Amino acid sequence: xxxxxxxxxxxxxxxxxxxxxxxxxxxxxxxxxxxxxxxxxxxxxxxxxxxxxxxxxxxxxxxxxxxxxxxxxxxxxxxxxxxxxxxxxxxxxxxxxxxxxxxxxxxxxxxxxxxxxxxxxxxxxxxxxxxxxxx
Length: 135
Description:
Elements (H helix, E strand, L loop, with lengths): L4 H10 L2 H13 L22 E7 L5 E7 L2 H14 L4 H6 L2 H5 L4 H4 L2 H4 L2 H15 L1
Antiparallel strand pairs: 1-2
Helix pairs in contact: 2-3, 3-8
């Protein structure tokens, strides 16, 4: 996920709705593979229509790194967008990040069905809670 969120947004805004879906699917393919052993009930994000797992790790310098996956391609793309805002950052920086604000220009609630986006707040809450515990 080397592409900055602003670059992804610039491309996203240029695309038609069907191509936006394809972009999200492509972003989902860029997620770091999450080992099957980490996909447990403990890492499952509640409230998502698709299965979503998030597993936080701590880098040697203390920054947080998240492994995440879903069984739905478009959902994986949404996960990639969320992680783009927080990946490999210090816990205090994650706590201070307006994740919802960073994602707002993508207008996901309008672009996607509600059952595709209903778990986003839960995923963000889990990331924030992790950062709060680590910070």
